[in-house]
Amino acid sequence: MATITCKRCEGKGRLAHFGHVNNGVCLSCRGSGKVLKTKRVTTLETCYTVVAFNGTRVHCGTDKAKAEALHVEWIAMNCHGHIESREVKKTTHVPV
Ligand SMILES: [Zn+2]
């Protein structure tokens, strides 16, 4: 993994104008002056919501198994619904 000079403190490890916070130690690099080089990666995640016929909505996030289990549970209770899915864009920073 590559490191690059911290942009926030320009490699000094301290921020003069933040002297009142944590002794001025740069929070971005924790005083080392270097940060891991990262790249921004955008991924699409599918999020699931179980919707009952009466309008109850349960958001299950990306947990498809949970959504399906809940759906089956509702059917067993004679409460019919369906599973909605939608694509959600997620940006993460990964070290390079
Ligand atoms: Zn820094």
Précis, in short:
The protein has 1 helix and 5 strands, in the order E-E-E-E-H-E. It has 96 residues and is mainly beta.
Structure notes:
- By secondary structure, the protein is mainly beta.
- β3 and β4 form a beta hairpin.
- The model has no long low-confidence stretch (mean pLDDT 91).
- The protein has two domains: 34 residues, no CATH class; 49 residues, no CATH class.
- It binds zinc ion.
- Zinc ion binds next to loops.
- The site of zinc ion (ZN) has 8 residues, from loops.
Task: List its salient traits.
96 residues; mainly beta; 2 domains; two-stranded antiparallel ribbon; 1 helix; 5 strands; binds zinc ion
Portion in beta strands: 35-45%
Shape: elongated
Distance between the termini: 6 Å
Helix content: 10-25%
The SSE order reads EEEEHE
SS field, number of helical segments = 1
Chart the SSEs and their pairings:
Layout: E1 3-5, E2 34-36, E3 38-52, E4 57-59, H1 64-76, E5 81-95
Antiparallel strand pairs: 1-2, 3-4, 3-5
The structure holds zinc ion.
Residues 6, 8-9, 13, 26, 28-29, 33 line the site of zinc ion (ZN).
